[in-house]
Structures
1.
Amino acid sequence: MPRNRKSVESTLQNKGFVKAEGDHHYFIYFDKHGRKTRARTKTSHSPKVCDIDDSLLGPMARQCFLNKGEFLRLVDCPMTREEYERRLIDQGELADPKATDTSDPSRGHGTP
């Protein structure tokens, strides 16, 4: 089922995606710590495009490292930003902040 383009764009921005302009509207995901990720997608600039066709939702999902059902949960709002980040961590697309705590000097990269 198609989704309203403006609604999808707004939801993505509310969930941590940052809009970047180009020949399309690009959305790049930054985690809660401000780290840029490989998760990104784009939508059309054209004012004629009011809805994102169902056939485009699958490719958008893959760009965000989700399956189509998960992506629909993300843009329809049942999936929170925290759940999305957990999914990226589980897939190895995002470092687990608990596993990369730099405040422990015994790890070799904190300050003593």
2.
Amino acid sequence: MFDHGEMPALALSPLADPVGVQQEARSSAARIQSVDTVQALQARIDSLQRTRLDTRLMPTHEALADLLPDGGLREGAVYALSPSSTLVMALLLGPSQAGSWCAVIGMPEFGVEAAEGLGLDLDRLVLVPHPGDQWLAVASTLADALGIVVVRPGRAASDGAVAKLAGRLRERGSTLLVLGPWPQAEAMISITASEWSGLGEGHGLLAERQVTLTVTSRRDPRPRSGQLLLPDAEQGIQRLDPPALRRSPERRSPEHRSPEHRAQERWASPARRVG
């Protein structure tokens, strides 16, 4: 049946161990499942953090809102301020009028009469004029119970203490305003120009103060600035430059403008009283 000669040998590869193949497949599937689980958890954590920190804002006076990142002060965040009692009062005004408890630590010059005249609720205001070296402990304790805390730091705090306080703020949803620089601050809010009016030639009274408020955010490198009377002649807050004109939004037909743009157009008149 066959031709004379030897048949060539067939090169056969050895059969793989079926048990080993199954184990390797299960191990690979487990690794893939673990990676997917970790990624899903991370996405869930990021979503929860964005929901908590990006959408929950402290009530803010409308004359200041468009200057601040996200349009207001975020719960759980820290903001650095230039040392100004009037600026502190302006930032506390919205939360105070909305019913939040506020605390001011390390500012003995903070005037309660001026604060009341501006509109702050003194019944919900806690003052700690002289915390000494315990300023950080006092701020941490009050942040556990109050919505917004202002502090002028004493001696420098360690990186560990700063990180611990930041975690407590996020957990409690409190907002911290620090006079002076602060690591990882959400924004720096500064009075970059100031001019009082009302005094004549050696007589008269200080009537109002025009300031330039500049906000620099770590998430937006472009500073935002606005002109305000802080306070005005009636001890209120008045915005001088219309936000709609300052931002110069894209021109659109009325039916295509967002509610935010339509609201900004109401500032088109000259100085508007807002406090």
